[in-house]
Design brief:
3 strands, mainly alpha, single chain, binds manganese (II) ion
Length: about 220
């Protein structure tokens, strides 16, 4: 009898979890002002609490209308043609910002792993040239979007950019791959501090890159 009750309790917990199986915002891994002066606290606060939170809330509203809820963002991206633009934009917005927060850190002097350093040298000749290419891609990207360092299906590093909240995991994106680093080049990411100077924002951002996290994502991507 006791085990039947336990089973029923377990069942009800599972169904509550399923009802609440909506997308949630993870806590920011540092304080709003931790990335100062490179990213100001007010930008972080608005970006995390308004923009990112807004994508999640709109995504949850949109998936609640569907016959069956997609299990993960990755499943949405893989089958992106089956979803509306509202799901596309907000699922992308959620994923992209999650990745962005994770590849930034107030910890000074994190370094890429030897494995990632070798791959960067193989693909871009040197770290300096990688940064130059990345900057060029960011400054030449017209309008809102993201610039990415990805691992392609051939396990090569490549730089690419996407518009709006698209990302390289979306099945219909021109250059596909697993993003291991990405920079938000929407004006909301830098306008308060840098106004229209996107290149300055990019140049300063290298001061707060979490190379350990990028290296971890690299290892995971090449082994997938
Ligand atoms: Mn953003």
């Amino acid at each position: 009898m006791k085990s039947v009750i336990q089973f029923l309790i377990m069942l009800s917990i599972v169904s509550v979890q399923q009802l609440a199986a909506q997308f949630e915002q993870e806590p920011l891994p540092y304080a709003y002002d931790d990335l100062e002066p490179y990213i100001d606290a007010r930008t972080m606060q608005i970006h995390y609490n308004k923009h990112h939170a807004g994508y999640i809330s709109n995504l949850n509203k949109a998936v609640a209308q569907l016959d069956s809820s997609p299990e993960s963002l990755e499943i949405i991206f893989k089958n992106i043609a089956d979803f509306s633009d509202v799901v596309r934009n907000n699922a992308g917005g959620h994923y992209n910002h999650n990745l962005f927060w994770s590849v930034l850190t107030p910890i000074k002097g994190t370094k890429p792993s030897r494995f990632l350093t070798e791959a960067i040298n193989d693909s871009f000749i040197s770290m300096e040239m990688f940064k130059e290419s990345f900057l060029r891609s960011a400054t030449s990207h017209f309008g809102s979007g993201w610039v990415w360092l990805i691992v392609t299906s051939e396990k090569q590093l490549a730089i690419t950019s996407t518009s709006n909240q698209d990302n390289p995991l979306m099945e219909d994106t021109s250059v596909k791959g697993i993003p291991i680093f990405g920079v938000d080049v929407w004006e909301h990411a830098y306008y308060l501090n840098y106004q229209n100077r996107r290149a300055n924002y990019l140049n300063q951002l290298w001061n707060v890159i979490n190379w350990e996290e990028v290296s971890r994502r690299f290892d995971k991507a090449v082994n997938e």
